[in-house]
Amino acid sequence: MSAGVPQRPPGCSSQTLQKSFPILRWLPHYSLPCLKLDLIAGLTVGLTVVPQALAYADVAGLPAQYGLYSSFMGCFVYCLMGTSKDVTLGPTAIMSLLVSFYTFGDPALAVLMTFLSGCIQLAMGLLCLGFLLDFISYPVIKGFTLAVSLTIGFSQIKNLLGLHNIPQQFFLQVYDTFRRIGETRAGDATLGVLSIVALLVLKLMKSHIPKIHRGMPLWLRLCYLTVWLTATARNALLVIAAGLIAYSFQVMGSQPFILTGKTAEGLPPFRLPPFSNGTVPFMSMVQDMGAGLGVIPFMGLLESIAIAKAFGITNILGSFVSSYPVTGSFGRTAVNAQTGVCTPAGGLFTGALVLLSLAYLTPLFFYIPKATLAAVIICAVAPMFDTKVFRTLWKVKKLDLLPFFATFLLCFWEVQYGILAGVIVSGILLLYPVARPQIKVYDQENLVVQPLSGLSFPATEYIRDRLYEVALAASPPRSVVLDCSHLNTIDYTVVAGLNDLQQEFQRKGVSLSFSDLQDPVFRVLLAAKFTGPGSFRIQGEARGKEDQQEADSSSHSSLLPAVNNSPEILAE
Amino acid sequence: MSAGVPQRPPGCSSQTLQKSFPILRWLPHYSLPCLKLDLIAGLTVGLTVVPQALAYADVAGLPAQYGLYSSFMGCFVYCLMGTSKDVTLGPTAIMSLLVSFYTFGDPALAVLMTFLSGCIQLAMGLLCLGFLLDFISYPVIKGFTLAVSLTIGFSQIKNLLGLHNIPQQFFLQVYDTFRRIGETRAGDATLGVLSIVALLVLKLMKSHIPKIHRGMPLWLRLCYLTVWLTATARNALLVIAAGLIAYSFQVMGSQPFILTGKTAEGLPPFRLPPFSNGTVPFMSMVQDMGAGLGVIPFMGLLESIAIAKAFGITNILGSFVSSYPVTGSFGRTAVNAQTGVCTPAGGLFTGALVLLSLAYLTPLFFYIPKATLAAVIICAVAPMFDTKVFRTLWKVKKLDLLPFFATFLLCFWEVQYGILAGVIVSGILLLYPVARPQIKVYDQENLVVQPLSGLSFPATEYIRDRLYEVALAASPPRSVVLDCSHLNTIDYTVVAGLNDLQQEFQRKGVSLSFSDLQDPVFRVLLAAKFTGPGSFRIQGEARGKEDQQEADSSSHSSLLPAVNNSPEILAE
């Protein structure tokens, strides 16, 4: 889900001290060149996160300062606990939208949600419950991301056009936005569209700058460097430029833009998260959050690498500084990597920049036009609206389109139903081959029936039906050799089913025997006292000479002696 | 789960007219010798079902006549729709206990439950939902059966000893029965114990009669036949004998036994099931049944062969004659088979005998001592209390003890929790290897990593971790060949995970390539544009010569040309 290869939470796999304290990996070797690279990368990420934080707070339905409150704790915690140098934690578009769904613009609920999400994530990390996330497949994640990015992108159209009082629910929003498109404010719309164009052009320029190398003349290198810096810090520069324009209009006595307005000044207080909200007690706050208490911690871990503990601690500590729930940010992680970050220490400089902005710049945020922030969000979520996934799924595995569409469509109703539907649909797709294994039938001297995968209990009735159909329902009934070369294990239900079936075969005067048994399966069948005449066959004997195959190597060494011994063992 | 091999409900597999109307299979060939055999078997089963029906009605908490009301519809329906000649439908001990749990001794609720269960079972048959039952494994069924047979058996101790007012809940019942054991009535206890002894002796005799053949003298054959008949009809004979004894005491003016008492006379009315109960409306009756509406239809199908449609229709029609929910009976199916039934027409005679008993014998049921009926039940459920299953599970697959004990223990709390817990535990056992496939690592020229089973999406993170661990975390990083010989299919999540990982390998200057690809997997990887240098290897190249194996035949023919073509295809 991210560029780096994920690390299991320590404690869930073989581990070392380094795994538990990842800072020990890089701190002892930390050097001055590293510091320089981390400083540049950290500040660049900082210039991205500050404008994004202001914008995302609006998506979350919270006052602008909450975006910044949420942006620094992750940097510090991840510096200590992070395993990948690139990852940056902080507010993201998706998480902001989820927060708006489940906390209804109430900062107290949002901060309590942060604390509880952190506790749940930490518990998942400590109890090794990360494997639960394994059951959320890519099609589900893609469907969710697509639906949510569409929702977020569309929610900004109203800010881009300067429309007021548009409802929050997606379908109502779409309806109202189009119905009232005539009320569009010229100033906001112009600034918004120009902002998007500027961001797109800068992004395009960045991806087309040739690699700088020492062979180039100095002036060319400087020129490229300027373009690269401008393009990388484009969010911050755009916001500053738009703020200056708005300020100029304000000074001249007219204001064509809707502005961010008054933002609380200074650093957030450090205090316990609000365990009650005025007269509203804790339990009723928890009830208000509802399914959000499942969705937000889960999605917080999903959106990025499964470092449940680091994420959990970030959220728990964040709730003490009025943060709303945060997670790893794709966009800023990419900026971090491209700027050449050396260690997780880069986060320290990002965090410091956010704190400085909070301490000294909040009065200036007054003048930032909302249309520009809308443009920042739209450009941030646009890459997530990756429609190529349709084509890829179609080409790679068409059945995976089912969980994809189930998730995508239901996410517009309620996010949790979308995810749940996707998980259920992909679960059914997963269990179907377990319940209905592929079976090959070779019609030779005897009938040879070969399941092409393992047999587990849900397949018992099916394999019995198939054997009945091909052998016992035939007239006259035929003997069957069950080729078990693909069976690694076997459970009691299957054994019991086969045992019944073998008796049925005997009643009809034919036999059901087993060939190519791997050792564990053979032992189980022996333990279950499969003692019918000629229950077991020497490997390879079953099929005819013309397509006789060596069995798989994993069963090879241990099986042959066991099968050769079988008559003696059976005679005990 | 029964002696016969199950048949899928028609419509869910390849079918013929015969499958839809099973009576067409045997009716055209029906003959007089068949009629004779069916008559004998049908009457024998009838002599078993009448006393059992009276006894099971007590287990269900209903008046005795309801047992008989439930005993004839199944015989007639199964004659028309049944696929196995042996199976008999009717009241069973387990179903009676479940009915008592969920209908609280209210006949109206029980009859409505019959109707609704029938509808649910029929819907399951028509919608091909029978596969849901596949997810209830044998350990769960065994745990359930063991717990329920213990509950039923113990519930009869109070009748055997003549104790009154013992509570219904299992633990309270055990406590109260032992606490009040001093109140035991001598007459009932004596009769009860003697009845059990009689039944056991007769059963033992039956299993020790030598096979009758024409070489024997006539008197010996007649003697054996008498013993066999007595033993087979032991329930009826015992009940008649006990009834006569009780009647004699009654005539002499003293009654040492608790009797069945007044039973409603005559045939049940044919009428709509009660969709409301006096002032209680339909929805509130349904709410009263609660989880029973899931457990009873499901268990009704589980206890015997999955002929959802026949069972559904039996229950729906049964509800018109005041039947409580019925299912296939193990015990009477065995009697049917042993008596040599020829076709499902045997059921006609069983049903007729039940109807005759209802019409003419109900006044006589007054005298049947309850202790004797308790003995009938105890002897019927005793074979279900099969404790050998512990040892078998221990020997065959120790992990299967987990769902077994989860079900067994929780069934004493609430049956539905027991089954649910068993299904969840066996589901986890089923999914664990899917999420954590076994992986073999061969350390040769390159590292060869071979998953020993398929890869599905829950395994993605795990396989990435493992590859990272063995190859990329090593210094220097090593190239890996992923041996895909056990992969039949692959989904988008796995492909995306491997794609990310291949990029990570390339960044570290090593390669991740694939060998022994089966055709479908190869196509998917091509579709997903796996275009890294040397992504694919010719089969067998991966592992060293010393343990090189032919790949499995299923991948053999189609794979080699595809792999040979791969450079051209990739170059498109």
UniProtKB/TrEMBL annotation, chains A, B:
Main location as per UniProt: membrane
Compositionally biased intervals (Polar residues): 551-572
Keyword Cell cycle: no
Keyword Zinc: no
Any Pfam family the entry gives: Sulfate_transp
Annotated GO MF terms: secondary active sulfate transmembrane transporter activity
SUPFAM superfamilies listed in its UniProt record: SpoIIaa-like
Cellular localization per UniProt: Membrane
Membrane topology, from the record: Multi-pass membrane protein
Record GO cellular component, one term: membrane
Membrane-crossing segments per the record: 63-80, 87-104, 110-132, 144-166, 222-249, 295-320, 341-361, 367-385, 405-432
Region (Disordered): 537-572
Top-level taxon of origin: Eukaryota
PANTHER family reported for this sequence: SULFATE TRANSPORTER
Protein name: Sodium-independent sulfate anion transporter isoform X2
Gene responsible for this protein: SLC26A11
